[in-house]
Amino acid sequence: MPDRSVDQITEALLGDGFAVLEGVLTPDNVQEKRQQLDAYLIATNFGDNKFLGYRTRRVFALLAKLRCFDDAALFPLLLGVLDNVLVHYQLSVATAIEIGPGESAQTLHADDGVYPLPTSAGPLIVNTMWAIDDFTAANGATRLVRGSHHNDAKRVTTPQEEVIAEMPAGSVLVYLGSILHGGGPNHTVLPRLGVVLEYAVSWLRPQENLGLTYPPELARTLPGRLQELLGYNLYPPFLGYVDGKHPAELLR
């Protein structure tokens, strides 16, 4: 298990823009996740543009298809960090990403760029990349520009400024949505598999349409905390109500 506290991870996240936590998932847990993902990956086409990756497969709406990532979405240490950084939040994206051999480097970008808000609005997104394979410089480990979340203009960077988030399978990379990052090139003969679980403050519209992706008939079968993360929540005092009531009323 990670040997850093919630406060230590929060400090690294706000300072550098990211933190790597090793030993979060056991080898058996990683293997179970891989086995359940395999059937979906086989049935998934490669991306159709350079950003998504012509040699990259993405399985979207992951928590609507598989239950084996609930433990990652609800990892207590991570939720403690989210409580510190975002306070009120929900899931925005749940996607498996397999970077195949021969894939080129993804363009560096900031995830909160989809929202027309300045960095001074404060942290909007905390993203997590769960390593199902070892992440290496050779196979497409995530690249980040340390401290770039402090720069509202998101200036052009040089390769020398990039940090490569190498980590063994079972680790998780936690990073702010305002830091410049991107998938790396895969120069090996094997794919590199990771799972992105992205959280956003709950007053923003999430990237996934949660109401359609996780309708009440599915949400009723899930743990209460996961229901809240999937949109059955209120941002105080009442943002997100349904017919004047808390959305959880739909599930009762």
Using the 3D structure, state the CATH architecture.
Sandwich
Oligomer: single chain
What's the arrangement of strands in the largest beta sheet? 1-7-4-9-3-2
What is the 3D form? Answer: globular
Distance between the termini: 36 Å
**How many H/I helices?**
8
Q: Given this structure, which CATH class is correct?
A: Mainly Beta
| Share of residues in strands | 15-25%
Mean pLDDT: 94
What is the number of independent domains? 1
Features:
252 residues, 8 helices, 3-stranded antiparallel β-sheet, globular, 6-stranded antiparallel β-sheet
Explain what you see.
The protein is globular. Helix 1 crosses helix 5. It has one domain (6-208): q2cbj1_9rhob like domain (Jelly Rolls). It is built from 8 helices and 9 strands. The longest helix has 16 residues, at 27-42. The protein is of the alpha+beta class and 252 residues long. Strands 1-7-4-9-3-2 form a 6-stranded antiparallel β-sheet, covered by helices on one side. A 3-stranded antiparallel β-sheet has the order 6-5-8, with no helix packed on it. Helices cover 23% and strands 19% of the residues.
